[in-house]
Amino acid sequence: MATAKTAGAIKENRPETLVSFIERRIETAIAEGEYPGGTRLSPATLSKEFAVSHIPVREALSSLAAKGFIDYRQARGFFTRELSVDELNDIYTWRTVLETEAFRLAMPKITEDDISEMRDLIKEESHKLSAADRLEFLELNRRFHFVAFNRVESPVLLHLLNYLWDITKPYTAAELIESTQGHEDHLRQLALFEARDIDGMIEAMDAHRGYRRNKHRDREARLGEPAPAKKAPAKKARVRKPAPRKSTGGT
Fold this sequence. Notes:
The chain is mainly alpha-helical. The chain has ten helices and three strands; from the N terminus they run ααβααββαααααα.
C-alpha cells in the first residue's frame, strides 16, 4: 500500500486513468498480504495514503468489489475477503466446467499467430520468476490462458471466465505454487496447443487446479492447528531443613 515514502512517486507516475492506477495498487497491497482477510478498507484513510481525493479511491474500491476481489457490506463499507478452501473449491468447480467447454470451443480456432503470442508470453515470464515479480508473472499467466479463451467467440462465456479469474486472484497471489512451476506448466501446455490436443490440455489444467486446491487445503489445515501447549515449568524440589537436635543434658 502507498505510504508517505511512495506518495510522491504516485503523483509522478500516474497513468492516464487515476482510478485504474489506484485499483491496481490496492489490489497489489491485498495480494501481497498487507491486509489480512476481513480488514476494513477505509476510502478516507486510503485517500490520505495515496495523496488523492476520496472519490477515485471509492471508485477503485467499488470496481474491485464488482469484480469480487473485495467485499462490500451494506452500511459498513469495503472489506478484504476471507479466503477459504470451500470457496476455492466452489470457484474451481465452475472454472473446470467453463474452461473445459472453452478449450473445446477454442482449440480448433487457435491460429499460428496465437501460438506465437503464447510463445512470446512464455519468454517474457521466464524473466519474472522471482518472488518480487510474482504479480507480474500472474498477469502474464492470465494473458497466456486468455489467448485461447478469446477464441471462444462467446462474450457471455468470456465474461464469466474473467469474473472467476478475478475472484481467484487473492489465492493465486499467495505463492503456494511457485512461478517456476507455473512456467514449466506453460511450456508443456504450449506443446499441447501446438498439437491442438484438446483432451490433453483439459487434463493438464485439471491437474494444475487440483494441485492448487491441495496446497490451499494443506495451508488451511496448518492454520487451523492449535498452537502446541506450553509445558509448565518443572517444580523445584523442596529441600527440607533438618530438625534441630534435642539437648541430651550434661555440661
